[in-house]
Amino acid sequence: MPPGLSAPTRHAAPRVTTRSGIGHAHLVGIGGAGMQALATVLSEAGWRISGSDIAATVPARLGWKTHSGHAIEHLLPPPDIVVHSPAIARDNLELAVARRLGIPVVSYPQAVGHLMNDRTGIAVAGTHGKSTTVAMTASILLAAGLDPTVIAGADLRCGRPLNRHGKGPWMVVEACEYRSSFLHLRPRIAAILGIEPDHFDYFTSTADLEHAFGRFAALVPRDGVLIGRDECPATRRATASGTAGVETMGVSNDAHWRARSIADDRGRYHFELLKGGRSRGKIRLQIAGRHNVLNALAAAALAHHAGAAWCDIREGLAGFQGLRRRLETLGVAGGLTIIDDYAHHPTEIAAALKTVRELHPGQKIYCVFEPHQASRTKSLLDELASSLHNADTLVVAEIFRAREPDWQPGEITAADLAARARHLGSHVAPIHDQNDIEDWLVDSWRQGSLDSGDVLVTLGAGHIGRLANGVYDRIRKSAAAERAAGSAHVV
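Structure (tokenized):
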């Protein structure tokens, strides 16, 4: 063992806190979005941060000391605590060495739970919309001057940080159901945005999934508040498991928090906010998509119970500019509008493509979809194929096998999803490798089949965003070169 790691076993080390015992935290799997969010909050609170990841490049900011790959030497000097991503194997070398030395080892959800013990917690759970609702809630609390701490696996589109260590009493977090991670939290206020089958590599049945959400609902104390989606029967069943007061949100007349007179201006929605049947003013959203009306209702309810005034709610929602990779328009290159989105579940895909149609009526839409996990693709094959029908031309990239072993003969493939979508009437290109897809799109633009006024939207929770940026950069450079050469292309 390298010098410096033969220190005596240490059991007395600070837990993950922002109020006392600040020390050195080493994050294994620091390249993940949630882990980076945690590292940001700890760093701003005064912790020294180091970390490692198998990625070729890992973030190094705010003075963090990061490493590519995992090695014993990365624990020099020995940290006070080691935090690991849920994606890291239990037998990881760095985790094994830390345990041998008696360095406390906790998972990411455990660490977030520790931090919530220092604050009054607001947790956002549900199959869809968690990151956006966390960000909306944070925007309202900031407008109210409440300076919240925020942890979510996304970045703001405007360039300002979403994840932050605030000086106020509230901590707003994204509560993920995978591996029942949200059961490490103890929120005083929580929301369940909706429950649908997902994470087929963990939950064995819909009943198993609903049971986990019911256990989460039961964590909210009797004097707390639980917000649930009114139109979702599974959410209603889960919220009934708790002892906290339950308020519903939705568009029905029975909802405690209701959106009335919903209207849109080319995909961007506005509505009248009602609480208990009483109007609280008009809400106008900058971000596109009818699905964000429900996210805004949940954020309004959460922030109201945290002390935000109605004017703060209106201001915070109106000023929210959206998240990266949530219907994010990268730009227009060579007349082609390129949009990138995180959608990977059928409900999300259908909502994203519907919104793109509203934003760009009458325009031809090319969609490149990267399925996320073979287990999800197999379990939702028909639903995925149906949700992709709103594109004029569809390309299915190879499956992103997050947390799954390499492909084995007989397993489902991107070609299977493409065939199913084709059977349902979609026009599907017969290519799946992302490098080949990028070349095909650029060549299609050069040949004029992908033309000025068309829209390219990339969907998926894996690496598909790299393809979107690659196509954007290549076409933009080609268009600039053609302009300089007096090309006939209209840009």
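Residues 145 and 168 are 9 Å apart (CA to CA). The first helix runs from residue 33 to 45.
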